[in-house]
C-alpha cells in the first residue's frame, strides 16, 4: 500500500495522527463525494480504535463486515497506529472477497443466503449447517433479487444472467454442479466454518428448531423411538419431530469431514 502523505504536526493539539482510509462498494454511499471510491487521509487524536474512526466518518457499523489494517483482518476494538492503512468492506462484497478470505479471521456478519430454484440440495445442506437460506422451487429472479436486497442475503446461483442484473449487490456464481462439491465450495468461498450451527434449523423449511419436551411429542413419534431417545427437536412449520438417530450420525460425520 502506498502512503498518501506524511504526518503533519498540529500545533497546540494533543497528538493527532494521520491514517489512510479506503471504503469499498456501498459503504461509499455514506461518504461525501470527494471521498467516494478512493483512499483518503484523515487525522484523529490518538489513541483511537477502528470503531471510533469508522463511526466518526459517518459509516453505520451495521453495514461493515470486515476491516483490514495494513492487509490484516482486525476487529472493531483494534487500536490504530500512525500511517495505518484501513480498508473497510461492507456486509458482503463479491469481487473482493476471494482475494481477502485468506487473511480473514472471522467475519463480523452472519451470512444469510437466497438460493435459486435449481440449487435446492445446496439450500438443504446450508440449512443443515444452520445457515438461514431461502429457497423455493418456484422462486423467480425478481423475487430473489428483491429479497436479497431487502434482507441483505447473498444470492447463490448457477445463472450468470441473474448476477449481471444491476440490482444485484451480493451474489456468487456457484461453479460446481455436484451438490457436495457445491457445499464445500460455498463454505470455503465465504469462510463459513466458524459460523456453523449444525442441526438447529429445519432442512425442509428453514425454520429454527424448538427443543421439545419428551412428554409433549409422545404422540408424534414411534413408540420405539420414544423409548430409545431423550432429546427431541420440533419444527413448528412442518409439525415434525426430529431426533439424533442414525441419519443424524451420518450427517454429523459428513460435517466433520467438511470442517
Ligand atoms: Zn420445517
Features:
3 domains, binds zinc ion, 27% helix, 259 residues, single chain, elongated, 4-stranded parallel sheet, alpha/beta, Ubiquitin-like (UB roll)
CATH homology-level superfamily of the largest domain: Beta-grasp domain
Q: What would you call the shape?
A: elongated
In whole angstroms, how far apart are the ends?
Answer: 33 Å
The CATH architecture of the largest domain can be named as: Roll
> Taking all residues together, what is the mean pLDDT?
85
Helix content: 25-40%
Name the ligand types: zinc ion
Helix count from the secondary structure assignment: 8
Helix-strand pattern = EEHEEEHEHEHEHEHEHEEH
What is the CATH first-level class name of the largest domain? Alpha Beta
Total number of β-strand segments? Answer: 12
Low-confidence runs of at least 5 consecutive residues: 5-12, 93-106
Kindly estimate the percentage of residues that lie in beta strands according to DSSP: 15-25%
Q: What is the quaternary state of this protein?
A: single chain
Strand order of the largest sheet: 2-1-5-3-4
- Gyration radius (Cα, Å) is 23 Å
CATH topology of the largest domain: Ubiquitin-like (UB roll)
Largest sheet: 5 strands, mixed
Amino acid at each position: 500500500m502506498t502512503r498518501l502523505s506524511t504526518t503533519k504536526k498540529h500545533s497546540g493539539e494533543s497528538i493527532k495522527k494521520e491514517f489512510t482510509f479506503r471504503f469499498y462498494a456501498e459503504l461509499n454511499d455514506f461518504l461525501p463525494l470527494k471521498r467516494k471510491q478512493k483512499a483518503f487521509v484523515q487525522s484523529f487524536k490518538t489513541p483511537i480504535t477502528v470503531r471510533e474512526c469508522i463511526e466518526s466518518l459517518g459509516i453505520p457499523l451495521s453495514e461493515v463486515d470486515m476491516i483490514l489494517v495494513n492487509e490484516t483482518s482486525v476487529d472493531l476494538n483494534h487500536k490504530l497506529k500512525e500511517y495505518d492503512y484501513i480498508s473497510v468492506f461492507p456486509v458482503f462484497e463479491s469481487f473482493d472477497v476471494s482475494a481477502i478470505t485468506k487473511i480473514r479471521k472471522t467475519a463480523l456478519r452472519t451470512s444469510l443466503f437466497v438460493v435459486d430454484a435449481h440449487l435446492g440440495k445446496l439450500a438443504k445442506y446450508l440449512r443443515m449447517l444452520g445457515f438461514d437460506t431461502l429457497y423455493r422451487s418456484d422462486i423467480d429472479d425478481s423475487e430473489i433479487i428483491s429479497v436479497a436486497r431487502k434482507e441483505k442475503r447473498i444470492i447463490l446461483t448457477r445463472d450468470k444472467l441473474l448476477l449481471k442484473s444491476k440490482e444485484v449487490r451480493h451474489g456468487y456464481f456457484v461453479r460446481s454442479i455436484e451438490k457436495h462439491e457445491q457445499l464445500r465450495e460455498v463454505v470455503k468461498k465465504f469462510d463459513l466454518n466458524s459460523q456453523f450451527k449444525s442441526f438447529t434449523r429445519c432442512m425442509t423449511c428453514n425454520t429454527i428448531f424448538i427443543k421439545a419436551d419428551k412428554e409433549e411429542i409422545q404422540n408424534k413419534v414411534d413408540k420405539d423411538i420414544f423409548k430409545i431417545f431423550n432429546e427431541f427437536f420440533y419444527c413448528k412449520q412442518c409439525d415434525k419431530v426430529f431426533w439424533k438417530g442414525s441419519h443424524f450420525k451420518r450427517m454429523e460425520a459428513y460435517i466433520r469431514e467438511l470442517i
